[in-house]
Amino acid sequence: MRDLEEDIQTNVELKSSDFEDSIQRSMNIPSKDYCLNKISSKDPYMLENAEYFKKESRWRNKQRVLILSTRGINFRHRHLMEDLKKLLPHHKAEPKWEKKQPFSEIIEVSELRSCNNIIFLEARRHEELYMWISKCPDGPCAKFQILNIHTLGELRLPGNNLLGSRPFLSFDSSFDIGQDDNSVNTPQHLRIPLKLLKEMFIQIFGTPRYHPRSKPFHDHVINFSVLDGKIWFRHYQISPETEYDHNIADKQVLTEIGPRFVLEPILIMDKSFTGQVIYKNPDYKSPTMIRNLLKARMGSVYARRVEMKRRRVEYERNLTDEIEEKLQSGGLNNELNEKILSKIRQDHISDFDKN
């Protein structure tokens, strides 16, 4: 009888312990032995497996940029495109685009390459270069003319940042002025939707965090400034003043390393390479228009010179005919007539030059 009571008591204790273990497992409560082992180990606060202390190391902001150009670019344009590829480790390259192909097919190419941003360089007459930046596939897009191009090899500047590092993007205060904040007294170059362009520049030129081809360093700065209705692009390296100031934040300076260029806005559309025009620069004059104006000015100078020559020849002919008529009528001797003729010619020619 006593043995039966002991067996029943041990079974009850085992069942109670199993029940407690099951409750602990269901509520994720660590066991007593586990806690004692942790206390005696190097991680007494159990922070090794704490989820809230783990940092995100996955590539979340999946921005990819498709960079391509049309045929007909010269060597400087090609070097600029290669410099942009070095600045953007999250880019994907594409062969040159045929000029006869419509721009709408670029959207299909970007979707096939899993790119949601586009930088398209359009060359005309082997001289002018235009830049299209677009969000794919729904837009918007913006068109610029690139002026004052200086590439990395051309500048020969002393700076040299780490290839593939993530840049700081710097914008001046003009980019914080929205299109709705503009008034009548606002300058014309500040009426550009700069907030929209700022967001597009951030998504295109900002290297995503934890990108497979990027490096977790920030050692260069890309600056966008607005002056005279144009956007000035500058690239700087964050370098120490001396070789002993690498870890001193207050002794870091900016060294320009290039490339550098100027973007003149032409138009902004609400879709990718098409759609309604959001903004059109009223002060923009195309290079073709400028060439036509110069030719017209030079043509007007030439036409004026030809007209003056024709009038001089006609005047001399009329003057000669008039003197010959007086000589034939007779009244003065020939020597005096010749003197009068030369005097009249000099007077009239001087008067003609004054006119």
TrEMBL record:
<dbReference type="Pfam" id="PF04427">
    <property type="entry name" value="Brix"/>
</dbReference>
<keyword id="KW-0690">Ribosome biogenesis</keyword>
<feature type="domain" description="Brix">
    <location>
        <begin position="63"/>
        <end position="274"/>
    </location>
</feature>
<dbReference type="GO" id="GO:0006364">
    <property type="term" value="P:rRNA processing"/>
</dbReference>
<dbReference type="GO" id="GO:0019843">
    <property type="term" value="F:rRNA binding"/>
</dbReference>
<keyword id="KW-0539">Nucleus</keyword>
<dbReference type="InterPro" id="IPR007109">
    <property type="entry name" value="Brix"/>
</dbReference>
<protein>
    <submittedName>
        <fullName>Ribosome biogenesis protein BRX1, putative</fullName>
    </submittedName>
</protein>
<dbReference type="InterPro" id="IPR026532">
    <property type="entry name" value="BRX1"/>
</dbReference>
<comment type="similarity">
    <text>Belongs to the BRX1 family.</text>
</comment>
<dbReference type="GO" id="GO:0005730">
    <property type="term" value="C:nucleolus"/>
</dbReference>
<dbReference type="GO" id="GO:0000027">
    <property type="term" value="P:ribosomal large subunit assembly"/>
</dbReference>
